[in-house]
Amino acid sequence: MYGTEPLRSTPAIADAWAQVRRNLRTQSGAKVFDQWLKPAVLAEGSDSETVRIGLPSPFMTNYVKSHFGDRLRMEFHQALPSVRSVVVETSTRSVQQAGANDEAPAAPVIEPVAAPRVLTLDRPLSAPAARPAGNGERFAFDPRYTFDRFVSDASNQVAFNAARMLAAEGPARFSPLYLHGATGQGKTHLAHAIGNAFMDAHPHASALYMSAERFMFEFVKAVRERDTFAFKSRLRSVDLFIIDDLQFIAGKDSTQEECFHTVNELMTMGKRLVICADRSPHMLEGVEAKLVGRLSSGLIADIRPPEYALRRAILDAKLAEMPQVAVPEDVLELLATRITNNIRELEGALNRLIAYAQLIGESVTMDFALQTLGELLKGPQKRVTIDDIQKAVSTHFELKQMDMISARRAQAIARPRQIAMYLAKRLTTRSLPEIGRKFGGRDHSTVIHAVRRIEDLRGKDREIDTAVRNLMRQLEG
Fold this sequence. Notes:
The protein is α/β, with parallel strands linked by helices. 49% of the residues lie in helices and 9% in strands. The protein has 18 helices and nine strands. The strands form two sheets. It has a five-stranded parallel sheet, with helices on both faces. The chain has a four-stranded mixed sheet with strand order 1-2-3-4. Helix 3 links the parallel strand 2 and strand 3. Helix 1 crosses helix 2, helix 6 packs antiparallel against helix 7 (228-236) and helix 14 (386-396) crosses helix 18 (462-476). The longest helix has 22 residues, at 58-79. The protein is globular.
């Protein structure tokens, strides 16, 4: 019976394992933890440097390896710094009962096998962020997020190249780097990739990643404990400081003041600074002008919603990491076509599809995908035409639809026309020449100019960005 032959383990490893399980349960949620992690046990052969985690089936082993392997390494290293590697294996022998530290009963065992099968998770924990920072600070950047695993195209090329440049060896060529884009577009991936690459290039440097919420929490705590000096010293002594989700400090005056002084001090000292937010600095509401000005003084790079080619490339890259998995072309086409705005959601849909198929022993087919993903695939299925777009834009800006194809160049007409061309490029499969012909026989270069102009204005003009968002929601139904 799985997990019925307890083996000896040092108290330190057992205590670390208990702490790791608690942390994973909190981070992953009870449902995910109970399904995938609760059956895991501390396996035979674990010692203070190499921890072995046993699971009851090859499938569960592979899933935990792919989705939680790096997290297990980081958690163990933080709980017990002597741990250098974690091996996840299919094993029936354990040093403790699965679920011994949890309230709910262990998840059912799937496909128990007797012979251990070790997978390649025994990579040494050499992620740069595990090194002590110059001021004693330790931060574990997520080793899954590297530049090599970031799929790039025109929608994120500037942000990607700027991130690599900032992390490169030698003096910083610019700072701060301000990355902005909607949720799930890859900002956090790039932030951690910067941290990992920077620590590789500068092994004796220090780096810190912090969400705006954590910044606010720690600052308020320092004020209450009358220890703001330690808080300021900690942040300003690092060589690379990354702050994520900056939009959440909107309206928090004292936090903004401290953030401004931190940013100002780091820039004055020539340190590297990375800011991530869901909109450009000038679009941040409730943020003081002096902080906006400071954030705008470096390089601002936006990450736009992924086009079809990038969405498909991301799916192909994910599948390349799972050579044993087969997903038909029509299913990949379905995912890339229906899930259009959020890369994180796209990757999650693929993972869910594969996991469900393996759990019940089914092949991934179109019918299976439609049945499994259901509501998720009911996204932008409505077929939007250029005529629909011209009508919607004309109504929104109180123009005649004929103005969309007329030769008139007045700003009140030209700008809505450019917005309509931009939406035609985003929401239809029409080529640039076809779009140009639908707008009074204009050249494809005119369409290109319109698309680029509206993309630029969306990052600067709140009214235009709001209008485009509203029109897209209206047109996609």
